[in-house]
TrEMBL record:
Stated role: Catalyzes the removal of elemental sulfur and selenium atoms from L-cysteine, L-cystine, L-selenocysteine, and L-selenocystine to produce L-alanine.
Aminotransferase class V domain ranges (all copies): 30-399
Keywords associated with the record: Pyridoxal phosphate, Transferase
The EC number(s) this enzyme carries: 2.8.1.7
Biological processes annotated in GO: cysteine metabolic process
Protein family (similarity comment): Belongs to the class-V pyridoxal-phosphate-dependent aminotransferase family. Csd subfamily.
The name this protein goes by in its record: Cysteine desulfurase
Origin superkingdom: Bacteria
Length: 411
């Protein structure tokens, strides 16, 4: 292994993840599936268990100290998220279940009340299903039109084509910051500026960007930004919707219930202010605490350092993968995050996945919830290896050995 190429000794982070000492099919776990969900460091699990053991109570409504403490931790977490993505105000941070719920919230609360049949939403070919289906539901509910930005053969967003998709009926641009299949990092700042020149708001799906690189929502100048805690080494079931305050203020609630109201009578309900208006019911308080701990954790490494670490692994992996006869990487444009998709001639991705599994290596094989992108590249599936803070060149070496084995078995 050549650790000399790494700027920081990332092995210190590896020790924080007990699961990496476990086995998969009797072999040491090599975890290359962080794009699906990242493993959890001890610090995150400790924060959640400490909260349950020492500070737990329901939030906002309690008139006793424990509840005040839980509320303080919950609201401090909102502040930490705000700082992490460089939002202007803590009120712009809404706790949701994940990226999927954040996008559905915007579609139903921003889009549905104000759009009509024939209005248009611009998406791209490289979207995850969770940034397609919520808009498709609006197409069914309202008769809106989905317009799709093409992707080049290298896996880049076709910006020239994007500019031509705008019309007087365009109501929203919703695109991914980084592709979960190709790894492509899209020029979202430029795309937002083009949309704004047409007075069109922009939603960015940050699920695959936030774990891999620094994100500044004010610099991008997006109107909405969504991501999931579980891909950022945090708990499942918690995520973030960022929205510019004026937009969130103008939107009706997404769900009704406790905690999102000011007053309730059968004749009239008044709602709490942003962001409580969007957080109906008892939220995932422990998830929020765990997400804040995950943010502290990645910030202790530094997002720029994490990005550089994954770039080094990409540079280490790509030439070795391409040296495997018949292997083709899907998505070669740069910049990209630490996600590599590939196919091998005459071996189905699922067969590759099975061989890797038996060697202890966890990767994804499938359509990765991006069926339109598979169709674009005329492939049924890819194998996807994705990197996180705990991966190193040994993991890439193990992947390579297993791919050569697959080649011998099936090729
Ligand atoms: N968007 C992208 C780009 C993703 O990769 C994913 C998850 O794989 C999602 C959205 C959906 O995230 P979640 O299932 O956490 O809501």
């Amino acid at each position: 292994m050549n650790m000399k190429t790494l700027t920081t000794d990332f092995t210190v982070f590896r020790r924080d993840f007990p699961v990496l000492q476990e086995t998969n099919r009797g072999r040491p776990v090599i975890y290359l599936d962080s794009a699906a969900s990242a493993q959890k460091p001890r610090q995150v699990v400790d924060a959640v268990s400490n909260f349950y053991f020492h500070d737990y109570a329901n939030i906002h409504r309690g008139i006793y100290e424990l509840s005040e403490r839980a509320t303080r931790l919950y609201e401090q977490a909102r502040d930490r998220v705000k700082n992490f993505i460089h939002a202007a105000h803590a009120e712009e941070i809404v706790f949701v279940r994940g990226t999927t719920e954040g996008i559905n919230l915007v579609a139903q609360s921003f889009g549905r009340p104000r759009w009509q049949a024939g209005d248009e939403v611009i998406l791209s070919t490289m979207e995850h299903h969770s940034n397609i289906v919520p808009w498709y539901l609006l197409k069914e509910q309202l008769g809106i039109v989905l317009k799709v930005i093409p992707v080049t053969d290298e896996g880049a967003m076709d910006i020239e084509a994007y500019e031509k998709l705008f019309s007087p009926r365009t109501r929203m641009v919703a695109v991914t910051h980084a592709s979960n299949v190709l790894g492509t990092v899209n020029p979202v700042k430029e795309m937002a500026s083009i949309a704004h020149a047409h007075q069109v708001p922009v939603l960015i799906d940050g699920a695959q960007a936030v774990p891999h690189m620094p994100v500044d929502v004010q610099d991008i100048d997006c109107d909405f930004y969504v991501f999931s805690g579980h891909k950022l080494y945090g708990p499942t079931g918690i995520g973030i919707l960022y929205g510019k305050k004026a937009l969130l203020d103008a939107m009706p609630p997404y769900q009704g219930g406790g905690d999102m109201i000011e007053t309730v009578a059968f004749s009239k309900v008044t709602f709490a202010k942003t962001p409580q208006k969007f957080e109906a019911g008892t939220p995932d308080i422990a998830g929020v605490i765990g997400l804040a701990a995950a943010i502290d954790y990645v910030q202790s490494a530094g997002m720029q350092q994490i990005y550089s670490h994954e770039q080094i692994l990409l540079q280490y992996a790509e030439p070795r993968l391409l040296a495997v006869p018949g292997l083709r990487i899907i998505g070669t444009t740069k910049p990209k995050v630490g996600v590599i998709s590939f196919v091998m001639q005459d071996i189905h991705p699922h067969d590759i996945g099975t061989v890797l599994d038996h060697e202890g290596i966890a990767v994804r094989a499938g359509h990765h919830c991006a069926m339109p992108l598979m169709e674009r590249f005329r492939i049924p599936a890819t194998v996807r290896a994705s990197f996180g803070i705990y991966n190193d060149e040994n993991d890439v070496d193990a992947l390579m050995a297993a791919l050569h084995l697959a080649k011998r078995l099936f090729g």
